[in-house]
């Protein structure tokens, strides 16, 4: 029997639900909370309140669009971490309640392990093993994906994530949150003429907090000379910030590829929407002879279909969660929360 999984994702500011049958996505519904834009970042308290009011509608819509009845569900998969505590609690509690009422298993999913499986749902999925460059507002990692549930983090950020770097740079430039899409857009008419210091780190570690400080001082010095510097040079500043971030990301990926000998590469996470990153990733792949995989945007940004994919594979292995499983904002990568063999 192919499992039918209802998946729920609520780790940050997207309330999402999806239904998968036999690992195929029947529906994938995401409600992105707009309320945070005016605050320049996600406000945790507002996020959890918005999850609470939206989750029932999002889950209903996912089930309706999948054209299944609730009683056809085999299990409920939900994100248990990492993420914002209040946000996670809404999804986990909702999933537990529904699992109890339908008398079906609950499956606990690690948010990042789900992100790195998202390329499997693309039109041309990678075969295992592959390297995944996961770039989002909260995370920047290079993960070696040996199998659906066998993943190894090779490199991670020591401070800010790549998306955070875009957003913080955008804030200094007076752009709205999240600034990544606008920096991408403005960069198209600019050139990367300004250089920022390039961190040299051990292994495949990333560091993006330095760029924020570098930009702050750069803008302070330039606006002292020309008070309209930002307005007059915005596209070039954006292109320079974007180029800096993309070069840092791809340099590490290239080294990880050389050292591991792997040639299948995937992008995941919201920053995978960046046109310069996508193009540079594909170009590098062509030069290096890699197979490159980029999932469609609805699967790259936070979504529940990727949670359902992990749920599918865990279901096949009988990895149910105990109903006392807790949301964990700092859940370590390979931790399998309180799961019992089914
Ligand atoms: O994965 P995601 O949707 O959410 C979480 O991090 O939870 O990623 C959001 C991040 C934000 O930092 C946003 O600025 C960035 O992805 N982003 C982009 C682009 N689109 C979204 N960054 C650069 N260029 C883009 N086109
Ligand atoms: Zn995410």
Secondary-structure content class: alpha/beta
> Kindly, what is the distance between the CA atoms of the first and last residues, rounded to a whole number of angstroms?
16 Å
**Global geometry:** globular
Largest sheet: 5 strands, mixed
Radius of gyration: 20 Å
Q: Please provide the count of β strands.
A: 12
Topology (SSEs and partners):
Elements: E1 4-9, E2 14-21, E3 24-32, H1 44-66, E4 75-81, H2 85-102, E5 106-110, H3 111-115, E6 130-135, E7 140-147, E8 150-156, H4 162-172, H5 180-187, H6 209-225, H7 229-260, E9 264-268, H8 275-288, E10 291-293, H9 297-300, H10 305-316, E11 319-321, E12 339-341
Parallel strand pairs: 1-4, 4-5, 6-9, 9-10
Antiparallel strand pairs: 1-2, 2-3, 6-7, 7-8, 11-12
Bound molecules: 5'-O-[(R)-(carboxyoxy)(hydroxy)phosphoryl]adenosine and zinc ion.
5'-O-[(R)-(carboxyoxy)(hydroxy)phosphoryl]adenosine (KG4) is lined by residues 12, 136-138, 163, 166-167, 178-181, 184, 269-271, 273-274, 301-302.
List keywords for this structure.
single chain; about 350 residues; alpha/beta; five-stranded mixed β-sheet; 10 helices; globular; disordered C terminus; binds 5'-O-[(R)-(carboxyoxy)(hydroxy)phosphoryl]adenosine; binds zinc ion
């Amino acid at each position: 029997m192919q499992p039918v999984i209802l998946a729920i994702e609520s780790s940050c500011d997207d309330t999402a639900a999806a239904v998968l049958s036999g690992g195929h996505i029947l529906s994938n519904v995401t409600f992105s909370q707009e309320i945070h834009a005016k605050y320049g970042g996600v406000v945790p308290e507002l996020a959890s309140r918005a999850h609470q009011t939206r989750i029932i509608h999002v889950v209903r819509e996912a089930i309706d669009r999948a054209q299944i009845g609730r009683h056809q569900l085999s299990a409920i998969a939900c994100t248990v971490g990492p993420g914002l505590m209040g946000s996670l609690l809404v999804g986990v509690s909702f999933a537990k309640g529904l699992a109890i009422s339908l008398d079906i298993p609950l499956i606990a999913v690690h948010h990042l392990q789900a992100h790195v499986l998202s390329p499997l749902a693309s039109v041309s999925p990678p075969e295992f093993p592959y390297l995944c460059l996961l770039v989002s507002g909260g995370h920047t990692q290079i993960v070696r994906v040996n199998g659906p549930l066998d993943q190894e983090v090779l490199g991670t950020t020591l401070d800010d994530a790549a998306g955070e770097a875009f957003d913080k740079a955008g804030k200094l430039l007076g752009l709205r949150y999240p600034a990544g899409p606008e920096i991408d857009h403005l960069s198209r008419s600019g050139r990367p003429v300004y250089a920022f210091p390039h961190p040299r780190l051990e292994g495949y570690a990333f560091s993006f907090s330095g760029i924020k400080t570098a930009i702050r001082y750069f803008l302070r010095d330039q606006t002292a000379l020309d008070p309209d510097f930002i307005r007059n040079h915005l596209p070039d500043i954006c292109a320079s910030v974007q180029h800096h971030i993309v070069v840092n990301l791809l340099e590490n990926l290239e080294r990880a590829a050389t050292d591991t000998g792997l040639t299948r590469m995937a992008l995941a996470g919201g920053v995978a929407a960046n046109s310069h990153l996508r193009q540079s990733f594909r170009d590098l792949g062509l030069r290096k002879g890699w197979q490159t995989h980029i999932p469609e945007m609805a699967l790259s940004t936070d979504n529940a279909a990727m949670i359902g994919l992990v749920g599918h594979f865990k279901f096949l292995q009988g990895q149910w969660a105990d109903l006392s499983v807790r949301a964990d904002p700092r859940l370590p990568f390979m931790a399998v929360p309180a799961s019992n063999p089914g």
